[in-house]
Specification:
The protein is mainly alpha-helical. 69% of the residues lie in helices and 0% in strands. The protein has a single domain (5-218), classed as Tetracycline Repressor, domain 2. The chain has ten helices and no strands. The two termini are 30 Å apart. The model is unreliable at 1-34 (pLDDT under 50).
Length: 222
């Protein structure tokens, strides 16, 4: 397997297009919208991933999205909290769409499923020049002390996206308990890989964790 930025930047085998526009850097699997409301959500999602929740102000979101202030408050009368809800929901839906796409292309194959997940997430990191963290991870580090409702929304996002992974493992013959624990471990590894990749500015950690995860999946089933 080739390593390095050129590999991840050129990886297209899963027919998921990684993009770097302000609307989304996750995948073009989700429909692209161009109205003011959608631009505001996409801008908030991008800034939350780069800067975090607290460091991102409404003024910056409005300015960078190009939305008139009056239009913004028409769409989001509850302000930043409502916008964060929408950003979380969009991010989770995008993440689930990517995972389901990978699952559909690796049906019944746990090992390639794992490798493709790590490759796809690594490609996104490279495409964003190592700027993007996981929106849910970023918000999970800040929100518990700020907004319990948003915290629950983030927690649900992790549960729902992790279940997609567990579902694939069950389809590969894993017992339910093993499928759930393997999926949880995989998600934890991905979130840690993002953090390390942002610091080191290299996707190498994704390769290392992919190898370890594949070995774990290939281990005898107890």
């Amino acid at each position: 397997m080739r390593k390095g930025a050129s590999y991840y930047g050129d990886h297209h085998s899963m027919s998921i297009t990684i993009v770097t526009s302000s609307e989304s850097c996750y995948a073009s699997a989700m429909p692209r919208k161009t109205d003011a409301r959608a631009r505001a959500i996409a801008t908030a999602e991008r800034l939350f991933r780069i800067q975090g929740f607290t460091a991102t102000g409404l003024t910056q979101i409005i300015e960078e999205s190009g939305a008139p202030k009056g239009s913004f408050y028409f769409h989001f009368p509850r302000g930043k909290a409502q916008l964060a809800e929408e950003a979380i929901d969009h991010y989770v839906a995008s993440r689930i769409a990517v995972l389901r796409n990978i699952s559909a292309n690796t049906t019944g194959d746990a090992l390639n499923f794992v490798r493709e997940i790590f490759r796809t997430f690594a490609a996104e990191m490279v495409a964003s020049d190592f700027q993007y963290g996981c929106l849910m991870q970023n918000l999970a580090n800040e929100l518990p002390a700020l907004d319990p409702d948003l915290t629950k929304r983030v927690a649900r996002g992790f549960v729902d996206s992790t279940e997609v992974i567990a579902e694939h493992f069950r389809g590969c013959g894993f017992a339910p308990a093993r499928a759930s624990s393997t999926a949880a471990a995989l998600v934890a590894a991905l979130e840690g890989a993002r953090t390390i990749a942002r610091l080191e500015r290299t996707p190498a950690v994704f390769d290392a964790l992919a190898d370890a995860s594949v070995q774990s999946c290939a281990a005898p089933r107890g």
